Every structure is written in structure tokens, then in C-alpha cells.
Amino acid sequence: MRLGVFTPLLSQLPLDKVLTKLRALDITTVELATGNYPGDTHCKLSMLDDAAALKAFQQTLKDHGTSISALSCHGNPLHPDPEKAKQAQEVSRQTILLAEKLGVSVVVDFSGCPGDSAHAKFPNWVTCPWPPEYLDILEWQWKEVVVPYWIKRAEFAAQHGVKIAIEMHPGFVVYSPETLLKLRSIAGPAIGCNYDPSHMFWQGIDPVAAIRVLGDAIFHVHAKDTQLYPANLPRTGVLDTKLYTDERNRGWIFRTCGYGHGAEWWKEFVSTLRMFGYDNVLSIEHEDSLLSPEEGLSKAARFLQEAVVREAPAAAWWI
To answer: Would you say which domain of life the source belongs to (predicted)?
Structure first.
């Protein structure tokens, strides 16, 4: 297993300087955003139609000895606003095509969230079964919007040798291991997850135990932590809509790795991933409102270096 970095945290720097900075941290793998919510600072989809730009991009990576773990296009392809949905879907389509050209096997995305009907203007995330119309909305969302889109998108990805790693994120229809596996059972093995433990923590899901549930559906992993605040949780609960920067009053916030849970926890996390077949990249994602991107990155890199096991174990003498 090795460390990587999701580069939007360094969006103020050009790609070559990002790669130089990461090399100094002994990191030679990157996850690059191509549009939608994270933007496209370091990886332009226009390279699909610009052979010279694509060649220069690949040469920059080669010069720095850097590989790509995934291309990411986190968006809402199911948005009830047709124009917003179309834009997110097109970024997804082009990202899959660019991944194929670059020999990158994984594209990270969100599942998306529709509205409550064909006439809705805004997404509607259903979180409880009562009053009963909520379940009617959820059934309509999956049957009429989620299933048709994702069956076709999974087929398209498979045709181009790419797997789609859905990040389980509250606010979208896939936010838990159960909902991820539901989508995978419908759309097929080209759908799996980008596993971000920070989103499990605050939902009350044990991220290590959930690895055993997800198994080979884990295609890519984010390294990001969450800190819970027991002093606030009795008042806020976990469905806390205050801004992430209102740290004093929230029930939880995202943290740089090591600031929410210690080394022992992260070693168990890495070991369990390997136990269940994932031995690829831990992609550092920085969303810690208490640390700058520079400090968060350097601290996470130093902290995780010890947790990452770099070599496969030798066969035991008794095997």
C-alpha cells in the first residue's frame, strides 16, 4: 500500500510544483480532479481533443516519477435541474474517456441525488421512513432516476475498461455500505466505492467493521479523519447543518489524519483493508478547517507513513 494525495488541496499551485512538493514528502501518486465540485485545476478534460496537451501532461507526470491513482469528478449527475445534471454527467463521461487514454482504471464520483418528483428544482435527500410520503419519494428516486442512469453509466465505464468508485456521502442516495451495495447489485461490478472513513465515523458506522461488509467493492480509499465532540452531540445530534467552520458548536468536524483517531486505529484500518483485498492507495484528502492545507498535508503524510505497509508479507514457513 502507498500514500497518495487528492490534489485540490494544492489548487493554488501548478501541477509541476504540486508534484515537486509531494515528492519531498515521499509521495509519488496523485488523485486528480477533472471538474464538478472539486474543479479541474490540475487535469483538464480538454486534453481529450488536444494531443499535444495530453502528451505534455503525461511527460510532466513522468518527469516527476508520479502515477495517477484515480481521476475524480464528484458531482450530482441526478440533479433535478436538467442543465446541472447534464453538465455533471458530461464531466463524468469525459472523465471516463480520459481515464481510458491515461490508463487509469478508477474514476471517483458521487451517486447524486434527485428531487422529489419530475418537477422538482432542488435535490431531496430522504433520511427517514415517516411520514410515509418520504418512502414514496425514495422509491420514485431509485426506480425512475437512480437505476436507469447508473445502469447505463456503469455499462459505459466497463466498455472503456474503467471502474466507478462512488464516494458514500450523506446528501446523496448512496451514503452507506448498504446503499452502495444496493447500487452495485443493480448496476454491476463496474460500480464500487471510494472509501472515505470520515463519512462513516459521524454516521455512527464503524469504518473498520464496514470494510468487512464492503469487501471487494472497495476500489479506492481516501485518508481523512473525523473528530466527534461529545459535549455538543447531545444538543446537535449527527445531522448537524451548521457550517463546518463553526467548530465550537458542531457535533463533529473533519480532521487531518491523526487528529481524530490515533496511530493504532489507522494501523488497524490499513491492515483490515489489506485483509479484504485492498492493497493500493490511501489518498490524503484535506478538509480540516483548523489546519491550513500545507500543514494538514504534511502532518497527515508524516502520520500515515508509519501506518502504511509497503511490502507484501513473505510466505510463512508453515504454509
So the answer is: Bacteria
- Burial level of 267, CB count in 10 A (0-12/13-18/19+)? middle
- Fold for domain 2-307? TIM Barrel (3.20.20)
Which residues does 30 contact at the CB level (< 8 Å), separation at least 6?
A: 4, 5, 6, 7, 18, 19, 22, 42, 66, 67, 68, 69
Residues with Cβ within 8 Å of residue 269, at least 6 apart in sequence:
197, 207, 208, 211, 307
Q: Is 81 exposed, middle or buried (0-12, 13-18, 19+ CB in 10 A)?
A: middle
Per-residue pLDDT of the chain (319 residues; tens, 9 = 90+): 999 999 999 999 999 999 999 999 999 999 999 999 999 999 999 999 999 999 999 999 999 999 999 999 999 999 999 999 999 999 999 999 999 999 999 999 999 999 999 999 999 999 999 999 999 999 999 999 999 999 999 999 999 999 999 999 999 999 999 999 999 999 999 999 999 999 999 999 999 999 999 999 999 999 999 999 999 999 999 999 999 999 999 999 999 999 999 999 999 999 999 999 999 999 999 999 999 999 999 999 999 998 886 666 666 656 5
Q: Which residues contact residue 3 at a Cβ distance below 8 angstroms, ignoring those fewer than 6 apart?
A: 26, 27, 29, 223, 281, 282, 284, 301, 304, 305, 308
Which residues, in sequence order, are bridge partners of residue 166?
Answer: 109, 193
d(CA 143, CA 86): 19
Domain boundaries, the chain: 2-307
Rounded CA-CA distance 34/138 in Å is 30
**Pairwise CA distance, residues 212 & 296, whole Å:** 29
Q: Please, which residues have CB within 8 angstroms of residue 115's CB and are 6 or more apart in sequence?
A: 80, 121, 122, 123, 124
φ, ψ dihedrals at 59, nearest 5°: -65, -40
Angle between helices 177-187 and 147-159 (to 10 degrees): 70
Residues comprising the chain, all counted: 319
